[in-house]
Amino acid sequence: MRLQAACMTAQMPQGRAVYEGDPAAAAALMAAWPGEYRLGPEGAARTDARWTAFWATAGGTAAPWGGSPGSATTFCHERYTPAGRRRLVVVEGLLSAAVVEPAGWAGGRPRVVWEGVADRDWADRPALAVIANLPGPYTIRGGIPDPAGSTTAADNNPSTTTSRRRPAGV
Which pLDDT does position 118 carry in this prediction? Predict the structure, then answer.
């Protein structure tokens, strides 16, 4: 339950990237926070240790939805369904996501209720396509619970998150 609670209240670093594609900036992250980042062929990624440990104790693998192991954990926090049920929402990179029904205090095991490619607002698709096709590396910052919604079931939109992606040179 301790790992689950840590994931439900996790906050991704806001002052630095969770993924950095620029080689010089990736090297700087690796030097400044050794052990927190994994250097891959395309950049440095920070996989949240709380999420990795929680998923392993829940019987999963490092990449529960088939993504690449060690992807940058963009978001890991409690959110609520429109009906007010608590969920752990985890986003890795920009597209992979998992929604976990937490174990209750009376026992039981956490249960993955959805996993796959995160949906995006159709209105954003043209802008996202332009950004995705820009040449060069990019940076992903840690996501936060959407300011339009809070972590309480009574708020208007407690199920959304916000994360920033910055293409090189922009």
Answer: 64
